[in-house]
Amino acid sequence: xxxxACQSLQAQGFTLKAYMKNSKVVGPPxxxxxxxxxxxxxxxxxxxxxxxxxxxxxxxxxGNRIAWKVEIEKLDYxxxxxxxxDGLCETVHPYEFFARQGVHDMLEHGGSKILPxxxxxxxxxxxALNTRKRPVICTTLKVLQHLVVSGEMVGEALVPYYRQILPxxxxxxxxxxxxxxxxxxxxxxxxxxxxxxxxxxxxFERHGGEDAFINIKYMVPTYESCMLN
Amino acid sequence: MTSVATxxxxxxxxxxxxKPKSMVRAKRWSEEVENAFRFQTAGYRDEIEYKIIMKIExxxxxxxxxxxxxxxxxxxxxxxxxxxxxxxxKEVHKIKLYQY
Lengths: 229, 100
Description:
- By secondary structure, chain A is mostly helical.
- Chain A contains 11 helices and 4 strands, in the order H-E-E-H-E-E-H-H-H-H-H-H-H-H-H.
């Protein structure tokens, strides 16, 4: 018998070819749930390069701090906060630093100005999480934890949008490294995605009001309450 | 929003600004070191110099222990600081504490 005849044919499952004697059924192609996706060019980068942000771009700035040209209390949050959130997709310095630090400063000092802007933040948050890039996801999760405590009712205002932002958390929730009895330094540096997701969901539940848990459970079925029982 | 911790510097006679008599480097972190860190990051010696140059009280967090919240730099830009401690242990030895 010739070698060619002995070679098995590769066939997709549930096809007539799969029934042939020397066919070997191969599994379906990988769906790519964890594959990183390239981020679109962000509006943050465009505005930054045009100099439209009220940020002083100085090289003598010490440490990790932004020098603001305008007082944060006087900024139009409806315009600037979604732009800074859009920059969370960035991974390149200095865009990544300014976006992250800018979001932090605006949330820290926003007070009641943050709540009305929540609906405009959902798309940038979703875009950042959908990149599936681990550093971007870690940064976004920390931003979400800060967001829910940044103002009154913000946590509850996020509940209707869980169905848009939690599916990605469901994918990465078990992304924990089993290092045995070794030390996982990513936990110390808060870069372990699985742990960060757990912290974020607990923050959502604590600040999301009565309906938060059931909505989280609907999107992330393996999540267990940190407040009940 | 009133300052939680305010000091009176009238007894120092801040007309033209007093000059510090001595300086020591901080060895351990404390609330005084934390505030000094915030002023020095913004380019001032300490709170006294800030008040002389800017002629305003620095804005502080209303929660205890009332660290500095916002400072205006000499070039007109603003620095904002967190509620909690920001000065890392590795930076404590760089902080200068001035005595008058």
